[in-house]
Amino acid sequence: DAKTTQPPSMDCAEGRAANLPCNHSTISGNEYVYWYRQIHSQGPQYIIHGLKNNETNEMASLIITEDRKSSTLILPHATLRDTAVYYCIVPQEYGNKLVFGAGTILRVKS
Amino acid sequence: DAGVTQSPTHLIKTRGQQVTLRCSPISGHKSVSWYQQVLGQGPQFIFQYYEKEERGRGNFPDRFSARQFPNYSSELNVNALLLGDSALYLCASSFRDRRDEKLFFGSGTQLSVL
């Protein structure tokens, strides 16, 4: 599977933007970048996904570099409830099998 | 609308026993996947079913099996339980079996093997 690399942890002040980076240098042209998050003791939650263009929804924005080798998830106004493990995933096989790495632990602090 | 529902929420078994976990996907979703999450790690893919056919299998022993029913609900069976099978078992559903499909996860079944 396309390996993604994320920092193990990040801190963010409440109300500020949280910018979570992800490297996926071996991504191929038809592979999507997905972001999920997992709040303690809950199932993972879909956040956003994209192929080439930047994407925005009610939860976050996804910025993908022009060469597609990296991306950034932006939570525009982080709250304490955004404290979670954030996973950047590039599904490769046919179908929607996800390979989760270690993710980034985001701690939002007041 | 109800999300993905899993039952039971918690389960305690002893080594050597068998367990069946159940999952009901979101209405209209035809694909169901199972994941195992050991404490401190990310979820690991076990199985995917789409339209009652197995579409993918992760690196798990034959003690693990699953099936999908005509109403698209699914069961995960684990035989001859080992202590190492203690984990959170997650079910996820999606409408189709495609790369551009987002998955919706249930809250999981916490299995403890003593």
Describe the structure.
The complex is a heterodimer of chains A (110) and B (114). With 110 residues, chain A is mostly beta strands. Helix content of chain A is 0%, strand content 43%. Chain A has no helices and nine strands. Chain A has strands at residues 9-13, 18-23, 33-38, 45-50, 55-56, 61-64, 70-75, 84-89, 104-109. In chain A, the strands form two sheets. A five-stranded mixed β-sheet of chain A has the order 1-9-8-3-4, with no helix packed on it. In chain A, strands 2-7-6-5 form a four-stranded antiparallel β-sheet, with no helix packed on it. In chain A, strand 3 and strand 4 (45-50) form a beta hairpin. The radius of gyration of chain A is 13 Å and the shape is globular. The N and C termini of chain A lie far apart (37 Å). The model of chain A has no long low-confidence stretch (mean pLDDT 92). Chain B has 114 residues and is an all-beta fold. Chain B has strands at residues 5-7, 10-13, 19-24, 31-37, 44-50, 53-57, 64-68, 74-78, 87-94, 104-105, 109-113. In chain B, 0% of the residues lie in helices and 50% in strands. Chain B is globular. In chain B, strands 2, 4, 5, 6, 9, 10 and 11 form a seven-stranded mixed β-sheet that branches. A four-stranded antiparallel β-sheet of chain B has the order 1-3-8-7, with no helix packed on it. In chain B, a hairpin with a 2-residue loop joins strand 5 and strand 6 (53-57). The termini of chain B are far apart. Chain A binds chain B through residues 30-32, 34, 36, 42-46, 49, 51, 85, 87, 91, 93-103, and chain B through 4, 31, 33, 35, 41-45, 48, 50, 55-56, 58, 90, 92, 94, 97-108.
Q: Low-confidence parts of chain A, pLDDT < 50 over ≥5 residues?
A: none
Helix content of chain A: under 10%
Largest interface: A-B, 26 and 29 residues
Low-confidence stretches of chain B: none
Rounded radius of gyration of chain B (Å): 13 Å
Described by the principal axes of the CA atoms, the overall outline of chain A is globular
**What fraction strand of chain B?**
over 45%
Oligomer state equals heterodimer
Mean pLDDT of chain B: 95
- The amount of beta strand of chain A, in percent, is 35-45%
Helix-strand topology string of chain A: EEEEEEEEE
Coarse structural class of chain A: mainly beta
Average pLDDT value of chain A?
92
For the termini of chain A, the CA-CA separation is 37 Å
Class derived from helix and strand content of chain B: mainly beta
> What is the makeup of the main sheet of chain B?
7 strands, mixed
